[in-house]
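A reminder from the course coordinator: this example appears on the midterm review sheet, so study it carefully.

Given structure:
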């Protein structure tokens, strides 16, 4: 028996329930022996991704780009809001309190920056690439403090709302799901900047997932967008459907990280 999980985009109870419904539909349609499991924070995502019985779970693109033994990439989600352009892409929002000291990107320097984990593209590597060009003019230490690891985008939001950090990066798709299901929670926050679009985290299986099972799961995922019975689930997940994806799609994340290294900004500081 293999496992499936959507922890990365289960930003609240409503989203988590919708993902369970969608993944249950996918594994049934694919006719594979996969159990949809819970894997709540703060359990470490790298431990989930390393499981030999991984059948269908979201994985950040950055560790995929770094792996010598990458997972079996099944498909990538296409968020439904128009700004995503019907593409399996996303970016990081830099969010701050509307009534706080950070109103523009220029205000961020010298303040307190929250982050998720260094192995996160949206919560660490994307903002590192955004800030790297400023090292030449401001020095390698850009912030008064970096606050983390906070593990999840939701905890970054919580830190900014609580005043424990002045700003932080949040996965755009995760933030949109928060805005859909908990508008009052994120209403005090403003987006002050956004990173460049990159390939969105895909659903993957373990490297040794048999090709026949991977193929059936991919076919089922690619049919999600046309399934009438999933209309309400797609609405709850701001999901148009899924697109084909491959390990090669995520190589750009490694290249971007190396470029930030070359600018002398090897870590958020």
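Designed residues:
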């Amino acid at each position: 028996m293999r496992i499936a999980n959507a922890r990365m985009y289960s930003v609240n109870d409503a989203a988590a329930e919708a993902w369970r419904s969608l993944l249950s539909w996918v594994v049934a349609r694919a006719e594979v022996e996969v159990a949809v499991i819970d894997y709540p924070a703060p359990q470490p995502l790298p431990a989930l991704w390393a499981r030999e019985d991984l059948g269908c779970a979201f994985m950040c693109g950055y560790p995929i780009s770094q792996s010598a033994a990458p997972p079996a990439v099944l498909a990538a989600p296409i968020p439904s809001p128009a700004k995503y352009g019907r593409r399996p892409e996303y970016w990081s929002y830099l969010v701050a309190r509307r009534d706080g000291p950070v109103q523009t990107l220029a205000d961020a320097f010298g303040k307190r920056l929250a982050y998720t984990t260094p192995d996160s593209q949206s919560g660490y590597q994307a903002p590192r690439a955004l800030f790297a060009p400023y090292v030449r003019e401001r020095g390698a230490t850009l912030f008064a403090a970096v606050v983390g690891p906070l593990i999840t985008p939701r905890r970054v939001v919580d830190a900014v709302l609580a005043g424990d950090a002045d700003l932080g990066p949040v996965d755009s798709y995760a933030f949109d799901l928060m805005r859909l299901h908990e508008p009052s929670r994120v209403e005090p926050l403003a987006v002050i900047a956004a990173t460049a679009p990159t390939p969105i985290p895909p659903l993957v299986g373990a490297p040794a997932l048999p090709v026949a099972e991977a193929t059936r799961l991919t076919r089922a995922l690619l049919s999600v967008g046309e399934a009438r019975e999933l209309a309400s689930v797609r609405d709850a997940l701001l999901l148009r459907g899924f697109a084909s994806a491959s390990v090669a799609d995520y190589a750009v994340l490694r290249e971007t990280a190396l470029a930030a290294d070359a600018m002398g900004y090897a870590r958020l500081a």
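The domain at 89-198 is CATH 3.40.190.10 (D-Maltodextrin-Binding Protein; domain 2). The first helix runs from residue 13 to 30.
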